[in-house]
Amino acid sequence: xxxxxxxxxxxxxxxxxxxxxxxxxxxxxxxxxxxxxxxxxxxxxxxxxxxxxxxxxxxxxxxxxxxxxxxxxxxxxxxxxxxxxxxxxxxxxxxxxxxxxxxxxxxxxxxxxxxxxxxxxxxxxxxxxxxxxxxxxxxxxxxxxxxxxxxxxxxxxxxxxxxxxxxxxxxxxxxxxxxxx
Length: 181
Prior knowledge:
single chain; 17 strands; 0% helix
């Protein structure tokens, strides 16, 4: 979600969730009007000082450079293309999956926000796994999705497609796995 970074005197850098609504008259309601919408990045988070004098954002590296009354700090916002995961390190296990020996299939090291589409050998979609309908372990740079195939899915070869997630310019990852009785 979009956010504004505001330098303060004494409170460090305020990260405020950006615009949440625009009414018919064009008036903007900011998330700061709501509880828990502002987070302060302070010396406890690594800033040199909580008295901010200037800031600039380096889009190429995803770094917010913060000038303070005691020096310069850098905050990695995790938005640089160079640090984005690419789904190339994605792994699927156990391989093969067996209903009699395993509880679930794990899709590991995938982009945050990725959606997995599972297809059978004929290309029919049998499941779509994402943040809303699967067990997802999240961290800022990668997710782990676990899936218990329902017993209605017959043993055989299945294919998965992991889209790019929150990074639209990331290529999808495809692969296959085997389900045994």
